[in-house]
Amino acid sequence: MSSSDPFEQLQERLDNPADPWYWEADETAPENAIVAKSISGLVEHIEERTSDYGPYPFVVITTRDGKRVSVAGLGTVLTRALANLAPGDMVAIQYLGLEPSKKPGLNDYANFAVERIAAADLA
Fold first, then answer.
1. Please, which pLDDT band fits residue 2 given cuts at 50, 70 and 90?
2. Is the dihedral of CA 105, 107, 110, 115 positive or negative?
């Protein structure tokens, strides 16, 4: 954000909504989606949202080039990996592919690597 005025910051966020991150292109991806195997940036905002499968973290990051990108922490692996994030942290998320479930009869799952640098360690 370029302004120190919180009212202007909120307006900037409204004027520049975050584009969603998709690790693979698919028919559900909106036109403005950021499609890449990995994404990294500064954690701007975190909220809890709810799907038919329960709560999940919804994270907005700002990338190195200033782009606002949203990451929906859907699925067990990503939900757990994003659980410890806080605003001001740096995060890198990489899609590793589908992995077979260790439990017989369950579907394959999307696996991710997530690296975090806490805000306190950035100073």
1. low
2. negative
